[in-house]
Amino acid sequence: NADLYEQPLKGMTDILFAVDRSCSMDDDIESVQTNFGVFTTTMASLDADYHVAATVEDSGCINGSDLFIDNSFSASDVQDTITTMINLGLSYGSYTEKAFMMLEATLAESVDSGGCNWGLLREDATLNLVGVSDEPEQSINNYSYYVSLFQSLKSDPDDVIFHAIGGDYPTGCGSASAYTGFYEATVATGGLFLSICATDWGSHLEALAEGSTADLSSFELTDWPVFGHRQVNSGNSIDT
User: Fold this and answer.
1) In which element (H, E) is residue 145 found?
2) pTM of the model
């Protein structure tokens, strides 16, 4: 059996942050915005082809004139754009502590050519969904419902990964409650869970950038290799 893999020059990844904008999150939101340049700098160093956005509105529409941040943005543009995406609305809506529902609304506006977020998501890119909150996830359905829902957007369910910055599981930390619901989604999809009580948000966002890039170094075979048979690497093909 011969498997053939075409390796892209750059890993395509779409990353969407769902940010809790309730009053208790003011300091955390400032930390995200202040350190976001570390995130995009790390993405650039990994030679990733990325779209990054933050969603905060019940409508799902991304705030501001830019639908996403990519590697064409300068450091100052990154700071201004992520601040606008999170802060433009005058007040938070009913979804602010319901990241799954916020993401559902945002993605629904991304998959139809008439949606306000059309162009945000790319068919061949991995989809990384990041929840940021100091409260438990409070969407109307449980985490497994939303994991399955978002995985249905991709031909390969492994292309959808959840990450979180929230209160430590299972007891919380400081004034933050455990980020239950989103924690389970990170475990189910192999994502990162980072403590919202940590002081070094630069390291957090650097870790998220590294965890959100596509793995271009390993490929899953379609069948088990037969023990003792010869393997021949020929260009991009592997014969077993």
Assistant:
1) helix 143-151
2) 0.84
